[in-house]
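Example 3.2
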Amino acid sequence: NWKKGKVRIQKIHTRIANVRRDFLHKTTTAISKSHAIVCIEDLQVRNMSQSAAGSSDLPGRKIKAKSGLNKSILDQGWFEFRRQLEYKQVWLGGDVLAVPARNTSRTCPACGHVSADNRQTQAKFACVECGYENNADRVGAINILERGHRLLACGESAQSGRSVKQEPTEVTQAASA
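Structure, written as tokens:
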């Protein structure tokens, strides 16, 4: 009788995996068909989902909570979403720009101030410098798009939310001759 239960559970897990795969394919196809350029956060999923167990000399902390977070990250299929999006964009002639994730949710899109205090809760962003307020995920998306545009325009990656390169402000003698 326990074998029948095991088979049923296996079928349920297979169905869940198929539904997730179908959702990822439909979503990435829709995005790829409607956008020539997609800017995403360059998340290191492998590093984000590493074990917190530690070693016998240096044991980890909050291992159970980290284990639950790891399972959630892997269940969401972030890596697979990116993989599918990248190959579909190439297939359709588009591009995926992966921007560094550093401070995307801590940088004010209005004034550029970077602070951990800007991100008051998981959902709320309020700049301590200029008072700009918005949903924290929306602020992250605004910053990712802006950095993607910078990457596209200047062929560079952003460092701490600020551009390293700058457009020339005046024409030099060699350029005008």
